[in-house]
């Protein structure tokens, strides 16, 4: 246990150390800037390997830290004119902030009193949702159909994620940080495209800046959307692959399917009597395809109950 704790602290510390080492190279005119960014990024990406391969949950936590820092380093590398304005303390504060991934797109502030008021109900709601998700997780589903277990667990987990990360963003702002609310009620999305516009908005900004726009942006929306989901699939394969110790391919499949659905529904805006049908259809589509995503979760922790055949 002590060895695991040591590695759990060591891996993120090493990753942060590599990311901090980029500070002298953040200016566009720095000699060896590209080489430094590449070498330090490799160091960050490999940091989860400091944890034993058998400790998969710990490796997942380390890979999430690593991918956040990798995203930050890439943004700092590409946006040198903004990165060079950061002092050392600002740089250190910016690195772990997962609610602000694109430096040039600083989240708009909100009245602190309003955030504190929202926090008073956001924290209890997030706590209740986590208890619900945990209860459903540990319930014995082994005698019930897999489809029923999946249908109960996944929405509960998604609700807990939505409420918890938004509460964390509120807390960040109350404490004086900059934070974009990650979730904009994605469970009420009318189409797959709208779901991803509402889901994880800081990551959406990053992919829009460095995948969607370079692939053609609105002028080539279909191609750019597919390129964006392809990039997201690769990122998720890294996160889960680093934790599991192998590339499963489930994330590429999941984001490939979702990317095709998002591309096909980019310009659809259901309303009127068709609205409930589209909302229900989107929820069902996400529920079915999420089997692929949660196969990776299940390889790290026992998300689904074992069933005797």
Count of distinct strands = 0
Helix percent band: 55-70%
**Secondary-structure class:** mainly alpha
Radius of gyration: 20 Å
Number of domains: 3
Largest sheet, strands/sense/barrel: none
Average pLDDT, all residues: 93
Strand content: under 5%
Morphology call: globular
Taking pLDDT < 50 over at least 5 consecutive residues as the criterion, the unreliable ranges are none
Order of helical and strand elements: HHHHHHHHHHHH
The helix tally amounts to 12
Cα end-to-end separation: 35 Å
Write a brief caption for the model.
The chain is mostly helical and 309 residues long.
Give an overview in words.
With 309 residues, this protein is an all-alpha fold. The protein has three domains: 2-94; 107-180; 184-309, no CATH class. Helix content is 67%, strand content 0%. It is built from twelve helices and no strands. It has helices spanning 2-20, 33-46, 56-78, 80-83, 88-94, 112-138, 146-174, 192-198, 201-212, 221-244, 250-264, 275-300.
Can you give keywords for this protein?
single chain; 309 residues; mainly alpha; 3 domains; globular
List the helices and strands and how they pair.
Blueprint lengths: L1 H19 L12 H14 L9 H23 L1 H4 L4 H7 L17 H27 L7 H29 L17 H7 L2 H12 L8 H24 L5 H15 L10 H26 L9
């Amino acid at each position: 246990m002590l060895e695991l704790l040591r590695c759990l602290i060591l891996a993120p510390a090493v990753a942060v150390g590599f990311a901090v080492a980029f500070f002298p190279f953040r200016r566009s005119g720095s000699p060896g800037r590209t080489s430094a960014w590449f070498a330090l990024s490799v160091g960050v990406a490999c940091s989860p390997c400091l944890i034993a391969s058998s400790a998969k949950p710990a490796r997942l936590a380390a890979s999430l830290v690593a991918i956040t820092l990798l995203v930050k380093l890439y943004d700092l590398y590409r946006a040198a004119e903004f990165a060079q304005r950061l002092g050392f303390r600002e740089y250190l504060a910016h690195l772990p902030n997962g609610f602000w991934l694109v430096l040039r797109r600083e989240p708009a502030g909100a009245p602190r009193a309003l955030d504190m008021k929202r926090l008073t109900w956001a924290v209890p709601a997030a706590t209740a949702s986590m208890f619900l998700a945990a209860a459903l997780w540990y319930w014995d589903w082994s005698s019930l159909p897999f489809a029923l277990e999946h249908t109960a667990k996944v929405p509960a987990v998604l609700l807990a994620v939505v409420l918890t990360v938004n509460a964390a963003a509120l807390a960040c702002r109350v404490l004086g940080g900059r934070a974009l609310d990650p979730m904009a009620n994605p469970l009420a999305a009318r189409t797959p495209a709208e779901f991803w516009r509402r889901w994880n908005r800081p990551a959406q900004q990053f992919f829009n800046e460095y995948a969607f726009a370079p692939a053609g942006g609105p002028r080539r929306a279909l191609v750019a959307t597919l390129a964006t989901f392809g990039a997201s699939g690769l990122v998720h394969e890294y996160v889960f692959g680093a934790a599991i110790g192998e590339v499963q391919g489930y994330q590429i499949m999941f984001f490939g399917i979702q990317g095709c659905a998002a591309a096909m529904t980019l310009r659809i805006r259901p309303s009127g009597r068709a609205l409930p049908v589209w909302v229900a259809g989107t929820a069902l589509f996400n529920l079915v395809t999420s089997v692929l995503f949660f196969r990776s979760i299940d390889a790290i922790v026992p998300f689904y109950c074992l069933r005797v055949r």
